[in-house]
Design goal:
alpha/beta; Rossmann fold; 8 helices
Amino acid sequence: MEDKNLIYPIFDRMLARQDKEELLKQKSVMIWFTGLSGSGKSTIAIALERELHKRGLLCRILDGDNIRSGINNNLGFSETDRVENIRRIAEVSKLFIDTGIITIAAFISPNDDIRDMAADIIGKEHFLEIYVSTPLEECERRDVKGLYAKARKGEIKNFTGISAPFEVPKNPTLSLDTSKLTLEESINKLLELILPMVSQ
C-alpha cells in the first residue's frame, strides 16, 4: 500500500507560466500587428524579432505564411473562415505566451470584433495591439504581390481595403505609419514600449 506521506502535492501541478518565464529570464507578451495588406506588418515583425533576439529574448513570429500553410490550411477567406483563422491563431499564441515566449503576430485582422476575440483568448493584460496605419494609397502603391490590382479588377473577392472593410482600431497600444516612419524609427518605438514589459 502506498504511503500517502510520500506523495508531494507539487508533483501534481503543471509548471506555470511564471516557472517558464523564470527559466527564460523574460516575461511573455503578445504583440499583435494589425493593418492593411502591404502596410509593413511582416517587415516590422521580422525586424522586431531580430532586435529582441539580439537582446537575448526568445520570440516566435506567427504570420499568414506559416499559419495558412499549416494549422489553417483547410480555411478559405469567407467571413466564417477568417474568424476561425484568427481564433486558432489566438489559441496557438496563448500556448506560446503560457510558455514564457514573446509572441509576435502579423495579421490583417480587419475589425474590432475579431481583434477583441483574440485579446480575450490570449488575455487583455498581455495583449499589445499595434496598428500599422500606413494609408491605403501607400499600401496600393507598394502592392508587392499584385493583390490590390487583382482586387480592383474583381479577380479577388472580399479583399480588405477594396471590396471588404477595414475597421481602424479604436484604442491601439501604438500606431505606426510606415509612410512617415523609417523601419528603424518604428522598431525604436516598439522597443521603448516592449523592453520594460519583458525584462525580468
